[in-house]
Request: fold
Amino acid sequence: SAVISQKPSRDICQRGTSLTIQCQVDSQVTMMFWYRQQPGQSLTLIATANQGSEATYESGFVIDKFPISRPNLTFSTLTVSNMSPEDSSIYLCSVMGVLNTEAFFGQGTRLTVV
Amino acid sequence: GESVGLHLPTLSVQEGDNSIINCAYSNSASDYFIWYKQESGKGPQFIIDIRSNMDKRQGQRVTVLLNKTVKHLSLQIAATQPGDSAVYFCAEKAGNMLTFGGGTRLMVKP
Reply:
């Protein structure tokens, strides 16, 4: 399994500001993903972070709001831009295992927007 | 789009009893299914998986059953312990995409 580190683990931010979340993996992985988990709910895929090209966003998520970087095979960032209280969620980084079956997750970033 | 859902949002069981958590899925193209456990303040943790060409798979104290006829997935936990208290998610995989169910909170009473 991969070891995934996310920073920060939590933050409280003012509305209108932006927060960049970092995800570091201990091995090179092809596929990295970013999920959102709103309070008391399940996980929703935001986008697939592609190394060397633009991220692939799911329906309802756009690059201007959630810009993603993937400079190499072990690192990615997700920015939550122009935040509002509705963006308060847990944001999770995920990678696919070497068998391309199960996904492994970081511990998440708990974001509260006030 | 197609989605994965669960029947019970909260399940309360006595310590030592068996737990059964259910999940319905709708994407017949899904070829792989996974159960995750999420404890408070942590990311989802892999528990057990099953491929679509199987109907049962056993792990340590856990069993996953897959019924493709009715598109139903279940997780059975034997001799439930306090450490099993968490939210459990099923997920289905089609291609490279994982779709998660709504989650069931398992509460274990001492």
